[in-house]
Amino acid sequence: MPIRILAPDVASQIAAGEVVERPASVVKELVENALDAGASFISITVEEAGRRLIEVSDNGGGIPADELPLAVERHATSKLQTADELFKIGSLGFRGEALASIASVSRLTITSRTEASAQGMQLRVDAGHASPIKPVGAPVGTLVRVEDLFYNVPARKKFLKKDVTERRHIIQSVTRYALAYPQVRFHLRQEGRVILQTSGNGERREALGILFDAEIARQMLEVVYNSETLSLSGFISPTSLTRASRQGITFFVNGRPVQDASLISALLKAYHTLLMVGRYPLAVLFLDVPPESVDVNVHPAKAEVRFREPDTIFTGVRNALRRALLAHSPVPEMGEQLRWQPEQSWQPPNQPAWQTPVHPSSAPSGTDWDPFDSRRWDEKTPAAPSDPTTGAVSSQQARLPSERLPLLRPVGQVASAFLVAEGPDGLYLIDQHAAHERVLFEHYMAQRGEKIPSQALLQPQAVELSPTNGRLLEEQLPTLSALGFEVETFGPHTFLVRAIPALLTNLDPGAALRVLVEDFEEDESPLQAELEARIVARICKRAAVKAGQTMSPDEQRALLLDLESCQSPRTCPHGRPTMIHLSVDLLERQFGRRGAR
Ligand code: ADP
Ligand code: MG
After folding, report:
1. N or C of the chain: less Cβ packing under 10 Å?
2. Average pLDDT, the chain
3. Is the CB of 99 under 6 A from ligand 1?
4. Are 172 and 259 in contact (CB under 8 A)?
């Protein structure tokens, strides 16, 4: 075909695709316009999940009659004049595209009245074709009606998700603005029911309760931080409140909800070592920076931003959050007082092996943060000092998960699943599978960067995955090669496996590959390091000895030795405990021996 300039309506449908992806994008753009117009009350009505009707009315400044036809033209805006202004944008809109885009894929009616005029004016646009404006009675403000969204773009319509999903996106979007603008009264009605209503009294926790739920809102910790370069406010969850995905995390930059990997990563860094691997905090955070230090014009839907000095922002946000977190919850930092303290006065019985005290030099230092550590600190059980009367380390302190293990003597195996071991401070029941997972995990992680042992297959094997999993895997290929896999694409969602990590050689290559994509979430893009840790955790889970497997005394001893040399022996890579410790102290209490002597 020869090169041709696209017809205007085709071009605008293409452009609309970037701005208007789904009903919630329409709601977002219209609400932004109302906020830009200075509204103090915004009412949103949605029918049939936005397919039939989306109506947004506001009591803002309105559009003057002579400008009304312009409002639906592409690149027509009242918010920007020169290119310089792009770098100091104070409004939510500036691209002059939203109304034009919406108009090209729906039937659009705008009714608006300014304070200065006695009556309202109405403009109708049908699939991009405007009729002449006509006067109507209307209050000051603007009412935008979007009917039959995508009626002329059947392909787009097909891509819409189930009604519940589209409705959820709408609610989420409105709730976010309600949170960001607590002084504005919001009202959302879907299918005739009031879904969300805020009072506009300036209280953010009110909207927080709608975004999550009242109980969660109550538990969320407030963040208030101001420095020369940024100010940060909002809410983050205590370490006891987590989710399996990052979906509970929202950042606003200068009042605009954005997706920004570095902000999320700064948040996760603040929780570093405080959450289990694969768990994420909830957060609603408002970052305000001078407009000239952020470029908001990088994404058609304005969902991404670029910071002039990303490192400063990253460090500032991380530190502010870390501080807030530690101020609010008595989370133990790894410090002197939390170290394992072997009681020197305690005299072991006759076994000479025990006279070696706990590896004193191997206790983690205060600054030594292991990025892949998966301990979970329980804020409700602060460290208790060791009990001076018995010399035994109290059970609470013994449970502090950051500590290395003392030397253990294997006693036996129970139910082919648990090891029983004796230590200087009591009895240990060890989950053999979880413990082995931990051992393999630390071993594997320590080898990263060098060459991870892999086993070449005698014959490369083709493995076909589902299209979704295939796509997910494809994105991870570079990561996989660093982890001992040798895999290449071999046709659509088919892969050729040449080598797999030595640990997995008992699995067939297909199973080994599937292990990796098992529960990747499609819309998640974890950080590289986190991703590797997750993949490795998954590999180790498959490779670890299973419950039900009988272990010989030698194998038991070897596992305990390996566990003793782990950095975080007390949890598996997924954060579950590897062991239960029954301290001498506890045993004495249970047997009513305490104080008897
Ligand atoms: P942008 O918001 O990027 O300027 P839009 O297409 O969303 O582009 O809107 C075009 C123009 O229409 C805006 O610049 C504004 O002047 C006007 N406008 C749109 N919605 C409203 C509203 N609710 N109240 C007042 N003016 C509005
Ligand atoms: Mg706009």
Report:
1. N
2. 80
3. yes
4. no
CA 271, 277, 281, 286: dihedral to nearest 10 degrees? 60
Q: Atom of ligand 1 at shortest distance to CA of 92?
A: 2
| Closest alpha carbon to 370 in 280, 448, 260, 314 | 448
Is any atom of ligand 1 closer than 6 Å to the C-beta of 585? no
Q: Confirm or reject: Cβ of 431 under 6 Å from ligand 1.
A: no
Task: Report pLDDT for 281.
Answer: 93
Task: Give the tens place of pLDDT for each residue, 327-356.
Answer: 764 433 332 222 333 333 333 333 333 333
Question: How would residue 80 be classed by pLDDT, with cut points 50, 70 and 90?
Answer: confident
Instruction: Answer yes or no: are the C-beta atoms of 248 and 176 closer than 8 Å.
Output: no
Q: What is the largest CA-CA distance in the chain?
A: 100
* pTM for the predicted model, two decimal places: 0.60
* Structure confidence at residue 127 (pLDDT): 81
Pocket test for ligand 1, best of 30, 43, 59, 78 (most atoms within 8 A of CB): 78
What's the CA gap between 28 and 258, in Å, rounded?
Answer: 12
Neighbours of 37 (CB within 10 A): 20
Asked if residue 212 has pLDDT above 70, the reply is yes
Query: Under a CB-based contact definition with an 8 Å cutoff, are residues 496 and 460 in contact?
Result: yes
Sheet holding 409-414, edge to edge: 409-414, 418-423, 426-431, 579-583
Band the pLDDT of 527: cuts 50, 70, 90. Answer: low
134 burial level (CB within 10 Å; 0-12, 13-18, 19+) = exposed
Q: Measure 235 CA to ligand 2 centroid, in angstroms.
A: 28
Mean pLDDT of 248-269: 92
